[in-house]
TrEMBL record:
This is Cat eye syndrome critical region protein 5. It comes from Zea mays. NCBIfam families: CECR5 (TIGR01456), HAD-SF-IIA (TIGR01460). InterPro entries: CDP-alcohol_PTase-I, HAD-like_sf, HAD-SF_hydro_IIA, HAD-SF_hydro_IIA_CECR5, HAD_sf. It comes from the Eukaryota.
Amino acid sequence: RPSDVAQRFSHTAPAPARPSFGIAFDIDGVILRGRSPIGGAPRAIRRLYSEEGTLKIPFLFLTNGGGVPEHKRALELSQLLGVNISPTQVVHGHSPYRELVKRFEDDLIVAVGKGEPAVVMSTYGFRKVLSIDEYASYYKDIDPLAPFKTWKVGQTDSHMSAKVHPSYDVYSERVKGVFVVSDPIDWGRDLQVLCDILSTHGLPGTEKGDQPPLYFAADDLEYQAAFCSERLGMGAFRIALESIFNEINDHPLKYTSFGKPNPFVFKNAANILEKLVMSMYPNSQTPMEGKDYQFSTIYMVGDNPKVDINGAMKAGHPWSSVLTRTGVFRGKDNDPQFPADVVVDTVEDAINYILKKEC
Ligand code: G3P
Ligand code: MG
């Protein structure tokens, strides 16, 4: 019987060699447009698994998007793509925020953006988090345009219920940090409330003071969503906030942006892929013994030259870039400013190219 054979020979059979390459996939404009898979993504991603559904090739998703905890996104992607994706295979723009928990131990912080920004921050371990929806709701008249808004605000974050009394003393406790987690929804209200918080040392309606720290999960000017042309991203919101803040204050806005193309994002992704491949092949020999990296190549498959390709270029060895034509980039040849190592039509073509080269 096959199982007996496997048992008898298991101590002598050589362990399968670890792949010497890994892959990082951008999501928006490569795997999905809006919520729909594109470019043959489900079929192509399935090639990275065995017939039995076990992961064969180490890969992860490296997106500047987000708005939900990584475990939730992993579940969504598993359903959309028909494979089993683990939370460690999902790196959002905001994933590095978890490293800042210690700095804001018992401080009140405000989380901004679509989805569940406050839930994301609580999942990372931040203890006193309010979404901007909830925070703004405690300040009557803070948004003079609210009475004209026909939509119901604040229904997306499960931290936002119909609370009348704030969980924290928002009228005397200063906001010590602002985290833009995902693309803001109500730009007008958010620009107003953030200018209030950031100009007044964290207490709207009081005198001007030091600016609390401000973080952006990414700085994408534009990205590919479901609409046929690019949409304004978090970087566009940052420009709007910065321009207004600088006009109404006598000192410039200070902020930190995370996400691609920062090289530390790629370094972190490489570390995750290395841990992943070791857990997939615990007994096999390291093919690149003695080298800094176990991988000879990590492919970044992206649609945005300025973000994905530029980032892989800046990160250097062992990163190599593959540009698809399903998102921000639609050129015939290569991008003139940030040329990729390879240009293909779709993510399926990218996977075909990589597997042909490596296997
Ligand atoms: O909001 C998402 C966007 O800025 C980029 O996502 O997956 O293309 O990095 P992605
Ligand atoms: Mg993209």
